[in-house]
Amino acid sequence: MMKASLSLVTILCLCAIRASALDPFNKKFIAVKKADNVTLRCEKATDKAVTWKFEDQPLEPAADIKMEGNNMTLLKLDLDLTGIFTCWSEEQKVDDTYVLLDMSDFISDSPISCTAETFNCTSTISCTMSEKGYQYFRLRNGDDWLKPSSEGKFYLTHTTNPFAEEATPIVVIGEGMSDLNHYFNTSYSFYIRDIIRPGCPRVSVLKKENGSMLDLKPPVTWILPLSYYPLEHEIQFVSRTDGQITQVNYTHSCVGKRRPKKSKNQKKKEEKKKKGHKSS
Ligand SMILES: *[C@@H]1O[C@H](CO)[C@@H](O)[C@H](O)[C@H]1NC(C)=O
Ligand SMILES: *[C@@H]1O[C@H](CO)[C@@H](O)[C@H](O)[C@H]1NC(C)=O
Ligand SMILES: *[C@@H]1O[C@H](CO)[C@@H](O)[C@H](O)[C@H]1NC(C)=O
Ligand SMILES: *[C@@H]1O[C@H](CO)[C@@H](O)[C@H](O)[C@H]1NC(C)=O
Ligand SMILES: *[C@@H]1O[C@H](CO)[C@@H](O)[C@H](O)[C@H]1NC(C)=O
Ligand SMILES: *[C@@H]1O[C@H](CO)[C@@H](O)[C@H](O)[C@H]1NC(C)=O
Fold first, then answer.
1. How far apart are CA 89 and CA 46, in angstroms?
2. In what order do the strands lie in the sheet with 125-129?
3. Which of 17, 88, 91, 95 has the fewest CB atoms within 10 Å, i.e. is most exposed?
4. How large is the average pLDDT for residues 211-230?
5. What's the CA gap between 243 and 274, in Å, rounded?
6. Which atom of ligand 3 is nearest to the CA of 126?
């Protein structure tokens, strides 16, 4: 038992290391616009002379490569000089920098889209990022970058009060990188009231007398709210027997539980009436 759990831990750790090694955002990188100049500094270098390598090939000064002390300047950068630059001192690697071509100016439609769902009363916003040709993305709406989940979603938390008018939009910043050493950054801002939509309400009311379920479906159309609220369903049953009318109301509130408000004897002949949100 002990051995089994130990090896499981080992496998998990290896996976984590491999995943982070593949993530190019973990590298020290710099994104440079096409035809701009960039100076790389060999940080942590001692006063010994340094040499540079580009993608493991020794680098010599050239028309577009200037070397000055511990610095190296790439002039009028283009795609052919993007990749990993390393600097070496006495056969030891001292520093490395991943140079990317900054394509932010060429990204037109926002690669970020976000949604939020009301019915299950979570306050989580889920965002996705995609852009043709790009494989790696990260996103933030605060100081810390978020990594995508295994389904490629970024889950943002927010502190917006659902019962008040939203005064300021939520702003997210996203970055993308490609295997071709392209990079972009972009920002996207939105109000929750504009992205919120009803999810599946999953309201099932058990009808006591024969155990069948009444299932509600989410509305087909949704009029954008000007503010948003955690939604509550109310379903009203009206029973008529021999001229006697009995009512039972069910509500489905944000606690995530349904509770009958009042449970009177339900009669066999039943007529249901749904209140609140219309179901088809
Ligand atoms: C890049 O450096 C060259 C040579 O020093 C200079 O002539 C040019 O103006 C610089 N370009 C930019 C965009 O700074
Ligand atoms: C190297 O670059 C840094 C910052 O870019 C600059 O402060 C320093 O003077 C440069 N050194 C040389 C020898 O050009
Ligand atoms: C609420 O909806 C989100 C997004 O669809 C989902 O991931 C989450 O599991 C749901 N939570 C509950 C309690 O149903
Ligand atoms: C994108 O990066 C540039 C340079 O690093 C920065 O000046 C700019 O503010 C960034 N844009 C966004 C939306 O973060
Ligand atoms: C049980 O419920 C189903 C669905 O509402 C209904 O079609 C059926 O007639 C009910 N049966 C009895 C015995 O009430
Ligand atoms: C059910 O709701 C309706 C409308 O809100 C209300 O008039 C009625 O008194 C409620 N019945 C019960 C039993 O709570």
1. 8
2. 154-156, 125-129, 112-117, 196-197
3. 91
4. 60
5. 21
6. 4
Residues shown for the chain: 280
Residue 58 has pLDDT above 50, yes or no: yes
Q: What sign for the dihedral angle of Cα 70, 29, 55, 182? A: negative
pLDDT at residue 209 tops 70? no
Report yes or no: 54 and 88 within 8 Å, Cβ to Cβ.
no
d(CA 245, CA 262): 14
Task: Specify the amino acid at residue 133.
Answer: G
Spatial distance between the Cα atoms of 126 and 230, rounded to a whole number of angstroms? 17
Q: For 2-6, 58-62, 82-86, 260-264, which range has the lowest pLDDT when averaged over its residues?
A: 260-264
Integer CA distances (angstroms), 25 to 87, 105, 207, 213, in order? 20, 20, 54, 50
Q: What is the DSSP letter of 91?
A: T
* Residue whose CA is at the smallest distance from ligand 5 atom 7: 212
Query: Tokens representing 44?
Result: 């942590």
Give residue 204 CA to ligand 4 midpoint distance, Å: 48
Looking at residue 267, what DSSP letter applies?
P
Closest of 160, 142, 168, 278 to residue 221, by C-alpha: 278
Q: Which of 52, 48, 27, 49 is nearest to 39 (CA)?
A: 52
Q: What percent of the chain has pLDDT over 90?
A: 43
Q: What is the pLDDT of residues 150-179, one digit of tens each?
A: 999 999 988 877 777 888 999 999 999 999
Which of 234, 235, 247 is the best mutation target for the ligand 6 pocket, counting ligand atoms within 8 Å of the beta carbon and taking the most? 247
Q: How far apart are CA 4 and CA 224, in angstroms?
A: 53
